[in-house]
């Protein structure tokens, strides 16, 4: 092998060795994401408060073609063939209502709660039992109709102490005696082996990860919160929010990002795609969670105006004057948000400027059209 | 032969004596027990009145022996005056549901004693070789 070839192959090594910066190295390894869990303040009261739930559901943007898409999972053996019917208006409305309730059920968000505490509950100590057996005895009460979390599960250790089992053991024994479909007694390799987990992240199988984590773990487990945290951060880093829209995981993700004050990339995405109304909702969410915006009342007032209206992702050709007024208000409010509280000011301001110009054109066009039709 | 349902298939007489006992259900070299209530004079191979739990005497991968107990039904049958055999009473004692059975203390003491004897004999053997 010639010297030139050796140098060419090892250039990268030489280069990195000479410009050794720690951060560069870590970011190359794709392991720079540090999971953060809800272990300080309890997020549950805020997450479950009705105002925040409404905002999160609205931001999810439920789209029925995605909510009711066919899934190839092992729960359903055979996919049903669709049925086509002629319906009257009343019957159609009833069917729509049904679809709405079904969508609500499918989009029910996994709860966001604080980490659980360890169980340290020694019931009795009996040193006279030392030597009785070398293994632990696990006793499970299998009385009918008791919920998993309230079941009596105790253990007698070889040193004679009788105590309540810790969380992991409880989960394992509950799974042994009352198995939950899809949950495994041993942790799946997807979660225990970092390479496999990273492979899924690289492949952008976010929904798969989150669905699987929901089945495998309880929402107050450390592992669950770490996995979801890494996934949310990965989505945020690559701005792949669209992959989670219309799924039940979008709400908790937005809540996570807002809770950790890192929702500015989502805000940028909203402004770039021209959905200023949702940008206002997001800012209102931040106000509701942290209460750190200067003009909080304005957001709440505008939210009550936006929520009764249908979701408007693309603007219609002819805008009504009400819509124009609302959108202008939204744009102004987003502008103040960007100037006062955002951490990505320049990019967001640029995106907002683009939206403004586009919107002005739209307004001119629609007013011109109305004038031409003689309706104005 | 498939196992009978936990609700039991055995006929019984209300006034006849009942017994809560371990009934071996495993196969050769693999013991596994049902904790069942049955009529006292019946054989273990005969249908039981009701299954109340299970006991796996072979330690699993985490060195644990698993016991399941339907405490609600157990209390019911105790209230009916069912007799409890000593292996079951020992298990219930370890659970904290009954007082610890004297046999458990005896076994523990004997095991400790055997361990002590083994240690002393090992020491002596070491001394004699040295």
TrEMBL record, chain A:
Gene Ontology CC annotations of this record: mitochondrial small ribosomal subunit
Top-rank taxon: Eukaryota
First and last residue of the signal peptide: none
GO function terms (MF aspect): structural constituent of ribosome
PANTHER family: MITOCHONDRIAL 28S RIBOSOMAL PROTEIN S22, SMALL RIBOSOMAL SUBUNIT PROTEIN MS22
UniProt name for this protein: 28S ribosomal protein S22, mitochondrial
Source organism phylogeny: Eukaryota, Metazoa, Ecdysozoa, Arthropoda, Hexapoda
Automatic annotation (TrEMBL), chain B:
Any one GO MF annotation of this record: structural constituent of ribosome
InterPro entries (alphabetical): Ribosomal_bS16, Ribosomal_bS16_dom_sf
Ribonucleoprotein recorded as keyword: yes
Entry's Gene Ontology BP terms: mitochondrial translation
Subcellular location: Mitochondrion
CC terms in the record's Gene Ontology section: mitochondrial inner membrane; mitochondrial small ribosomal subunit
One Pfam short name: Ribosomal_S16
Keywords: Mitochondrion, Ribonucleoprotein, Ribosomal protein
Family: Belongs to the bacterial ribosomal protein bS16 family.
NCBIfam families for the chain: S16 (TIGR00002)
Protein name: Small ribosomal subunit protein bS16m
Species for this entry: Pieris macdunnoughi
Organism lineage string: Eukaryota, Metazoa, Ecdysozoa, Arthropoda, Hexapoda
